[in-house]
Amino acid sequence: ANFIGRDQELDELLQAHAAGIHIFGARGQGGIGKSALAFALADKLSSRYPDGQVLIEMLGTSPTPLSPAEAMAKVIHLWHPELSLPENQSELAGLYLTVLHGKQIILLLDNAHDSAQVEPLIPPPGCLLLVTSRWRFPLPGLKSCDLDRLSPPAAVSLLLSIEPRLKDAAATLAAYCEYIPLALNVSARALYRSPTMPVKEFLDQFSDTQSRLHLTNMDAALQVSYNLLPPHP
Question: Whole-model pTM?
Answer without folding.
Answer: 0.90
